[in-house]
């Protein structure tokens, strides 16, 4: 088949261009999600366009099973997998600082090592700073955690790594936004932003066009949207718990640990349960997914992020359950080690998918609004 | 899983109430409708699972009558208007009673097919001109098929893939059994009634040649390579009456670079109205601007088939490049008409002269590709009656086109119950037909977008119902 003779940075982007040219000539899938209407607004596809479309794709799999040209057809149209590979390539390409981009290459291994180092670091540090009585003692009062690690040290360390993660993903996002060629103003335009918050918050495009995703076969039976909601909102609840606790500490002078009925614990527990169910469900779906739809090389990255989220919750809830026992010191060290590693690896793993996809949705909302205006004019 | 779905472990065991031969829209509508009426149904699909569904895989919409606008249809489309459209495209070559019956039944099809799991969407990019008359499948024809198969299997319909029927046991208008090739084995399957929904013979080049002669070698087949007409031929041999001209078919002009089979929708070209079309002698041969494209696209397959070597070239200039739907292959381009001719293997002087002659005949007008505008030629034969603009802005572009056969119209004669009629005029006792294999009853020639699916769904549903009823007797 003649391919359009354009130069692309990678073979994957060249293949994505070929597929979008096929799809743009067909358009049968235009009702399934945002990718195809966005594609229809273009007649040719530069790298930035393809990176945008790749991140707009939620990987529901419907277009693969609805396609009359998917393999074994000679046109070999596999949009979900090609865009998944392009998407993961884009995470690496926009990583900041550049020197850390290789962390994406064997991401599962990298994240595991960093997590192990984080946990070991906290255990060793606690052991080094305190004698056995403190580390393995029973602490019941407010401020008990800070017997092991002073609050200011904890705040400085986690505030620092969180800030670093935010700067790093922010720089990545900036690179992505420049690459797709959208003006900065779009990101703060209220209407597209609100539309994107709606679309992302409901995972509007992870539903196979209305019947649910196709994961294991052409039968829509996937609950990924449910599990993703558990994960995302669980994460947000945990984040809210941390924020409330921070306010308690600095505004009200109330120190952790908090009573079981208090807001930070309630939020954290609810979020923690979501962060157990969600990642476990997503991981099971990921492993059951039809291999032909999967970016096999990046399976480790997906698994690593899900496992880190799961462990964050598991160690946190375990800490909550046994915080009044002598194991508290060790459990705290493990939890803090995992959380530290989660934050540190955020810019270099699957976490960034949410930001790039959200940005793509903002751009899509803007494009659709503009397109509608043009059509009306 | 695959083995079980293919039935390779045990295979179908008769006798069945209803045997459906074919696996597309008509076949599945028949199977579902028969099964809902209590029949034990087997579907025999000659293709492997991926290629199941014949040409339904390549479809996108169906044309149904409706009295009011709906969520997905922008306005009413009455039975009379539908019939007028059918009369116009067929030039009157339709069985009026059957056609009116089908159109009447098409109204309820919009509900029935949704009840079988099929989902519709409003028409969007590139198809807005059909937004009032045609209902578009969400995800296209293969998505529609997937839903029909899921529904059928949920009802207990058995489906056997890779199961080509190689012989029919028909005795004096009564179907008794079919012989099926499954792997190396031949299996005899008995049933109390037959629904033949196995498509036309468009993928059988030898059969096409019987009507068209050697020129059929140059035809491209837009859809499934599995529609070879073997069931139609066996029914004819068993004394079933046929209707229609073996050279009549739904044929459009598609990109000459398309594969021989199964290139589907993406090799379609919508740019005829924006330029001129010449044969390999650089001569124009038909009014490119006769009517809006959705009303005329289906005549160009036959027009190109009548040209030397069955090839033609759509020539247009830079101003028109983005006015039509993109297609798979990029256009061939040249900085001048002469350079373009060189790339196309055409005589540069002759093509330049044809373009210059056309340009000189173009009258001033206001170009509007949404209406029948006043841009036309004067003193040119054949004329271009609308959208005639001078081809003068470099670069110049061309698409080579060949006839792309969608499906054939030679059909088994049927009645209102979709029951086949024997050549001696008697009705068949237990044999019904639906889809392409009987399309010629309604479509003597010509085509209107989406009507193939209407024929399949409406007569499929009727055939299944009648076959189930017949099997109970």
Description:
Chain B: This is FAD-dependent tricarballylate dehydrogenase TcuA. Chain B: Its cofactor is FAD. Chain B: Pfam families: FAD_binding_2. Chain B: Keywords: FAD, Flavoprotein, Oxidoreductase. The complex is a heterodimer of chains A (377) and B (473). Chain A is mainly α. Chain A contains 14 helices and no strands. Chain A is elongated and about 70 Å long. The two termini of chain A are 38 Å apart. The mean pLDDT of chain A is 92. Chain B is an alpha/beta fold and 473 residues long. Chain B has two domains: 2-246 and 409-472, FAD/NAD(P)-binding domain, CATH 3.50.50.60; 251-404, Flavocytochrome C3, Chain A, domain 1 (Alpha-Beta Complex). Chain B is built from twelve helices and 19 strands. Chain B is elongated, with a radius of gyration of 23 Å.
Which features does this protein show?
heterodimer, A: 377 residues, mainly alpha, 2 domains, 14 helices, 0% strand, elongated, B: 473 residues, alpha/beta, FAD/NAD(P)-binding domain, Flavocytochrome C3, Chain A, domain 1, six-stranded mixed beta sheet, 12 helices, 28% helix, 21% strand, disordered N terminus
């Amino acid at each position: 088949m003649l391919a359009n003779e354009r130069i692309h940075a990678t073979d994957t982007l060249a293949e994505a261009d070929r597929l979008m040219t096929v799809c743009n000539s067909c358009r049968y899938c235009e009702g399934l999600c945002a990718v195809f209407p966005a594609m229809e607004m273009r007649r040719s596809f530069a790298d930035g366009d393809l990176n945008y479309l790749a991140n707009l794709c939620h990987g529901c799999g419907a277009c693969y099973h609805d396609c009359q040209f998917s393999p074994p057809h000679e046109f070999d149209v596999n949009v979900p997998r090609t865009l998944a590979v392009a998407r993961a390539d884009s995470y690496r390409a926009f990583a900041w600082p550049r020197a850390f981009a290789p962390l994406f290459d064997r991401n599962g291994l990298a994240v595991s090592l960093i997590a192990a180092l984080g946990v070991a670091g906290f255990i060793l540090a606690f052991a080094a700073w305190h004698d056995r009585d403190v580390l393995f003692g029973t602490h019941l009062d407010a401020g008990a955690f800070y017997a092991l690690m002073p609050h200011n040290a904890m705040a400085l360390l986690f505030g620092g790594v969180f800030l670093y993660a935010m700067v790093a993903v922010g720089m990545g996002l900036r690179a992505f936004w420049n690459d797709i060629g959208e003006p900065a103003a779009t990101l703060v335009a209220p209407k597209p932003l609100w539309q994107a918050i709606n679309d992302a918050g409901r995972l509007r495009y992870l539903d196979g066009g209305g019947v649910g995703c196709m994961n294991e076969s052409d039968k829509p039976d996937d609950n990924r949207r449910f599990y993703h909601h558990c994960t995302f909102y669980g994460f947000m609840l945990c984040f809210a718990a941390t924020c409330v606790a921070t306010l308690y500490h600095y505004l009200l002078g109330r120190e952790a640990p908090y009573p079981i009925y208090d807001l930070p614990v309630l939020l954290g527990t609810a979020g923690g349960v979501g962060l157990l169910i969600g990642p476990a469900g997503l991981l099971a779906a990921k492993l059951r997914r039809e291999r032909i739809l999967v970016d096999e090389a990046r399976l480790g990255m997906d698994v690593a992020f899900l496992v880190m989220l799961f462990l964050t919750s598991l160690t946190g809830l375990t800490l909550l359950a046994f915080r009044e026992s002598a194991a508290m010191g060790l459990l705290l060290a493990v939890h803090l080690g995992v959380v530290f590693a989660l934050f540190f690896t955020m810019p270099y793993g699957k976490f960034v998918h949410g930001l790039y996809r959200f940005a793509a949705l903002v751009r899509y909302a803007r494009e659709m609004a503009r397109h509608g205006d043009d059509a009306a004019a | 899983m695959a083995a079980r779905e293919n039935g390779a472990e045990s295979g179908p065991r008769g006798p069945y109430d209803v045997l459906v031969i074919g696996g597309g829209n008509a076949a599945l509508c028949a199977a579902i409708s028969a099964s809902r009426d209590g029949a034990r149904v087997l579907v025999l699909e000659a293709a492997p699972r991926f290629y199941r569904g014949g040409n339904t895989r390549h479809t996108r919409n169906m044309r149904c009558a409706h009295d009011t606008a709906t969520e997905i249809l922008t306005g009413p489309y009455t039975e009379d208007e539908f019939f007028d459209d059918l009369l116009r495209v067929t030039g009157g070559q339709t069985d009026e009673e059957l056609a009116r019956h089908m159109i009447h039944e098409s109204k309820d099809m919009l509900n029935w097919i949704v009840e079988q799991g099929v989902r519709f969407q409003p028409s969007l990019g590139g198809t807005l001109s059909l937004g009032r008359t045609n209902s578009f499948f969400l995800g296209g024809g293969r998505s529609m098929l997937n839903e029909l198969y899921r529904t059928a299997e949920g009802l207990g319909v058995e489906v056997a893939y890779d199961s080509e029927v190689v012989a029919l046991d028909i005795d004096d208008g009564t179907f008794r059994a079919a012989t099926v090739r499954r792997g190396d084995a031949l299996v005899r399957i008995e049933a109390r009634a037959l629904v033949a929904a196995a498509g036309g013979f468009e993928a059988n080049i030898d059969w096409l040649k019987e009507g068209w002669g050697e020129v059929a070698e140059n035809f491209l087949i837009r859809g499934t390579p599995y529609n070879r007409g073997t069931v139609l031929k066996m029914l004819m041999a068993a004394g079933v009456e046929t209707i229609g001209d073996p050279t009549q078919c739904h044929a459009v002009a598609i990109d000459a670079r398309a594969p021989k089979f199964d290139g589907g929708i993406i090799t379609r070209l919508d740019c005829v109205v924006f330029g001129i079309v010449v044969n390999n002698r650089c001569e124009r041969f038909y009014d490119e601007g006769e009517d809006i494209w959705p009303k005329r696209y289906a005549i160009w397959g036959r027009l190109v088939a009548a040209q030397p070597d069955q090839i033609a070239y759509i020539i247009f200039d830079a101003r028109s490049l983005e006015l039509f739907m993109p297609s798979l292959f990029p256009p061939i381009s040249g900085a001048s008409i002469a350079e373009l001719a060189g790339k196309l293997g055409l005589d540069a002087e002759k093509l330049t002269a044809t373009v210059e002659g056309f340009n000189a005949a173009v009258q001033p007008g206001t170009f509007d590709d949404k209406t029948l505008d006043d841009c036309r030629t004067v003193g040119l034969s054949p004329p271009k009656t609308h959208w005639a603009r001078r081809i003068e802005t470099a670069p110049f572009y061309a698409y080579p086109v060949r006839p792309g056969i969608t499906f054939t119209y030679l059909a088994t004669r049927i009645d209102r119950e979709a029951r086949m009629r024997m050549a001696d005029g008697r009705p068949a006792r237990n044999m019904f037909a639906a889809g392409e294999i009987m399309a010629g009853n309604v479509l003597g020639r010509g085509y209107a977008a989406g009507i193939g699916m209407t024929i399949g769904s409406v007569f499929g549903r009727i055939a299944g119902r009648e076959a189930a009823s017949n099997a109970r007797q």
